[in-house]
Design a protein that fits this description.
mainly alpha; two-stranded parallel ribbon; about 100 residues; 4 helices; single chain; 2 strands; about 10% strand
């Protein structure tokens, strides 16, 4: 389900990039950025938090504010959980990792 949503979102962005009319492209891109700015990222087995870091990089690359993005995850292994917390902290990101 998430893979399909990701592919659809990426396809939507690629489609916007190929719009020839600048005004239309800007309108579509603004709407796309608003959509990205209110995302929730959930990883039920987050490991060291790599998916969260890549997700945040994607959001930043598309010029969206990280303030409206939520991170939720959990990890069974306490050592790996601490790595995920550290991985977010060194990038000034906050998330609820349970």
């Amino acid at each position: 389900m998430l893979d399909k949503r990701w592919l659809l979102t990426y396809a939507e962005f690629e489609e916007i990039k190929n719009i020839a009319i600048p005004k239309t492209r800007k309108q579509k891109l603004d709407a796309f950025q608003k959509k990205l700015a209110n995302l929730n990222f959930l990883d039920p087995a987050c490991g060291s938090g790599g998916m969260f870091i890549q997700s945040m990089k994607f959001v930043q690359e598309h010029q969206c504010r990280l303030a409206n993005v939520s991170i939720y995850g959990q990890e069974k292994n306490p050592t790996t959980w601490r790595l995920a917390k550290m991985n977010l902290a060194i990038r000034s990101l906050e998330g609820n990792l349970g």
